[in-house]
UniProtKB/TrEMBL annotation:
One of its GO terms (biological process) is synaptic vesicle budding from presynaptic endocytic zone membrane. Keywords: Cell membrane, Membrane, Phosphoprotein. SUPFAM superfamilies: ENTH/VHS domain, GAT-like domain. This is ENTH domain-containing protein. InterPro entries: ANTH_dom (IPR011417), ANTH_dom_sf (IPR014712), AP180-like (IPR045192), ENTH (IPR013809), ENTH_VHS (IPR008942). GO terms for molecular function: 1-phosphatidylinositol binding; clathrin heavy chain binding; phosphatidylinositol-4,5-bisphosphate binding; SNARE binding. It comes from Neolamprologus brichardi. Coiled coil: none annotated. Pfam families: ANTH. It is found in: Cell membrane. Gene3D superfamilies: 1.25.40.90, ANTH domain. Belongs to the PICALM/SNAP91 family. Residues 14-145 form the ENTH domain.
Length: 282
């Protein structure tokens, strides 16, 4: 379907009549057009997250309501809009989403009626699980790992051992959920899933940076750890190596499809590059 549907136009008109600018913007960002949400609507919603007189619960609930649609296009675009606001909106939106007992409940979502409905429904279920995990990570760590300060004096490089061993598994869980999106190049067939994949790609780069710096910090502290901490650190490290294989596959899809500039200076340890003092334990 190209262009806004009659349903989209009627819904937007209703919100105009009731004076709900946020609802109208959400409606326009999540139309039945098979393309990503338009930048002007996303920019307006980002602006809303920074306005103190805007109700964040109302904004979030309006987005969540759009995920109850039967249309894979509307639901996918509602998830994309939410993800975009998580990344670029005011942090109080992330705080609110993380405070909810439930966020997206789309494990059984299936659009049987539309072209591409079956295939896209699979990715909707996976994408919603990632966004749930992203919110859960914020709840557990009180920080968005994709936005934290990096470098030698960054958060993960200066974190103490005890907190590091608690934090790295949280990052692992979020990265697992992201990599479980698992598209191949033949499945990135429209502007909606491509937009979602672009956002996931950006998160993967930033998550990896935090993850990698945390592992470096952990290895530097290894010989000063207690025995039980050493065991936990080894398990975290083995898990890290497995994730790097999956991340490499994810980035290859991005590179092959030209959806994202997949190289971007990412360096993933090869088998020969892993720290030698731990090799005997793996």
């Amino acid at each position: 379907m190209s262009g806004q549907s009659l349903t989209d136009r009627i819904a937007a008109a209703q919100h105009s009549m009731t004076g709900s600018a946020i609802s109208k913007a959400v409606c326009k960002a999540t139309t039945h057009e098979v393309s990503g949400p338009k930048k002007k609507h996303l920019d307006y919603l980002i602006h809303c997250t920074n306005e103190l007189n805007v109700s964040i619960p109302h904004l979030a609930d309006t987005l969540l309501e759009r995920t109850t649609s039967n249309s894979w296009i509307v639901v996918f675009k509602a998830l994309i809009t939410t993800h975009h606001l998580m990344m670029y909106g005011n942090e109080r939106l992330m705080q609110y989403l993380a405070s909810r007992n439930t966020l997206f409940n789309l494990n059984n979502f299936l659009d049987k009626a539309a072209l591409q409905g079956y295939n896209m429904s699979t990715f909707i279920r996976r994408y919603s699980r990632y966004l749930n995990e992203k919110a859960m990570s914020y709840r557990l760590a009180a920080v968005d790992f994709t936005k934290m300060k990096r470098g030698a004096d960054g958060v993960m490089r200066t974190m103490n051992t005890e907190k590091l061993i608690k934090t790295l598994p949280i990052i692992q869980n979020q990265l697992d959920a992201l990599l479980d999106f698992q598209p191949n190049s033949n499945e990135l067939t429209n502007g909606v899933i491509n937009t979602a994949f672009m956002l996931l790609f950006k998160d993967s780069i930033r998550l990896f940076a935090a993850y990698n710096e945390g592992v470096i910090n952990m290895l530097e502290k290894y010989f000063d750890m207690k025995k039980n901490q050493c065991k936990e650190a080894l398990e975290i490290y083995k898990t890290f190596l497995n994730r790097m294989t999956k991340l490499s596959e994810f980035l290859k899809v991005a590179e092959v499809t030209s959806v994202c500039p997949a190289t971007m200076g990412i360096s993933i340890w090869s088998e020969s590059q892993r720290p030698s003092f731990l090799s005997d334990f793996i």
